[in-house]
Amino acid sequence: MGRLIVVSNRVATPTETKGSAGGLAVGVFGALKDAGGVWFGWSGDVVSETVAHAGPTIVHEGRVTFATVGLTRKDYDQYYRGFSNATLWPVFHYRNDLARYERDEYAGYRRVNAWLAHKLTRLLEPDDIIWVHDYHLIPFAEALRAEGVTNRIGFFLHIPFPAPQIIFSIPPHEELVKSLCCFDLLGFQTTTDQLAFHDYITRHARGTVSADDRVEAFGRHLRTGVYRIGVFPDEIAEQAQRYESRQHVLDLKQSLEGRKLIMSVDRLDYSKGLVERFRAFEQLLERSPEWRGNVTLVQIAPPTRSDVETYQLIRQELEGEAGRINGRYSGLDYTPIRYLNQRYDRWKLMSLFRESQIGFVTPLHDGMNLVAKEYVAAQNPDDPGVLVLSIFAGAAAELSGSLLVNPHDAIGMCEALQQALSMPLKERQRRHQVNMAALRKNDLGVWRDSFLRDLRSVPVGEGH
Ligand code: ADQ
C-alpha cells in the first residue's frame, strides 16, 4: 500500500494529534500513522519571503512527516484572508451579501496553490495517494497535474457546496469547478452538496453524471461520493464522564443554583446563527415568564478570522444583542446569557456538555457541525440532555433523535426549547439512543476509511 499524503490549509502540530485539538486532527493522523506519509500545508505563520521560500520545515513523528511552510504577508492577505475567507467562505454558506470579489485576491489564491503544489512535488513518491482538504485548496490538483503528477488525488469539502445560482456570483466559478474536476475523487458532507455539484456539471458545464456517481466534464473523468464526517462517540463519552466532577464543572453547577443550562459552542462566525439563537432565547424568556430566572444560556464563541471585516461586525452585533437581552431580563443574582469569547480545552467542553439539559446548535448553514455530534456523545445515557439542531446543519440528516428547528423562525426555536426543557426522561433517553446509534454507525473512522478506500480504488490514469 502506498503512503498517504494529507494536504490541508493548516497542519496540526504533532502535540495536537495526541488529542488536545479537535477529533479531526486525531482522525486524520490515525490514517497517516497506519499508512505512513506526509501532512503538508501552512504552518500558520506569516513570514518573510526568504523564510517562505526556504521551506518546508520538516518534523518527523514515527512514520509521519509534518511538512509546513510559512506564508508571506501578501500571500496571506490574498489567498487566506481574501479569496478563501472573504469570497469562498461566505458564498459557500449562502451569504453572497457578505462576499467580495477582487481579481488580485483570486490571482493570489491560484498563485499560492501553485506554489504549494510545487513545494509538495519534491516530497512525493510514485505510489503515494494524496488527500486534499477544503475550500482553500480547490485548484491544488490542477496545479499538481501541471507539475506532471499522475498520482491519485482526492478532495474533501468540509463546508457546503452551494446551488449553482449561488456560486454564479463568484465571477470565475467555472474555472473553480473545472479545477475540482482535476481531482480523481470529490467527497461531500451530504447528498444535498453532492447533488448541487452534479447539478452544476450537468446543467452548466455540459458534463454528464452516471447513476454510480461518475462524472465526465471538462475532458476529465472523476468520481464523487458522500462521506459524512463523524466523531469517536465512545471516547467522547468516556472523556465527558471522567471529567464531570472536576472543579470547573462544580463551579458552574454552583453558580447556576439549580437553574437549567442550555449550552452552545461555536467558532464566532456569521454562518453559525448566533444572533438568531440569542433572539430565540429572548423569545423563551418573553413568552414563558416561568423560565425567567430559571434557565441560563452559556454561549462559548472564540473569535476566528478577526482580521476579516465581516467577523468584526458579527462580533459587535453579538455583543450588542447579549447586552440588550441581559439588560432586559437580568436580576441581581441572574444573568440570562453568559457569553464567553474563549477557547476551552476539549475535555472541559465535553464535561460542560454533559452537565447541560439542552445543546442548542443552530447554524444558518454548516457542512456538518461536529459540535452537535460531540454534544450527543458527551451525554449521560441515564439522564441525557436534548439536542436542538438546525435543519441547515449537515448533521441534521443523521441525528433524527434531535428536535429539528429552522434558525430563521425565532418562535419555532423558542417552542423547541420549551419542549426540550420539559421533556420526560423516557423520551430524552429514547432520542439519545437514536442519536448515539447514528454516531456509532458512522464514526470518524468510517468517514476516513471509506474515503481512502474509494480513492485507492480509482484506477491510476482514469481521469485523463
Ligand atoms: P467548523 O466550522 O470549525 O468546521 P465544527 O464542525 O462545529 O465547525 O467544528 C468545530 C470544532 O472546534 C469542534 O470539534 C469543537 O469542539 C471545536 N470548538 C468549537 N468551539 C470551541 C471552543 N470555544 N474551544 C475549543 N474548541 C472549540 C468545519 C465546517 C463544519 C464541519 C467541520 C469538519 O464548517 O461544518 O463539520 O469543518 O468537517
UniProtKB/TrEMBL annotation:
EC number: 2.4.1.15
The protein's annotated pathway: Glycan biosynthesis; trehalose biosynthesis
Keyword presence, Transcription regulation: no
Annotated keywords: Glycosyltransferase, Transferase
Coiled-coil region: none
MF GO annotations: alpha,alpha-trehalose-phosphate synthase (UDP-forming) activity
Protein name: Trehalose-6-phosphate synthase
Lineage of the organism: Bacteria, Pseudomonadati, Pseudomonadota, Betaproteobacteria, Burkholderiales
Gene that specifies this protein: otsA
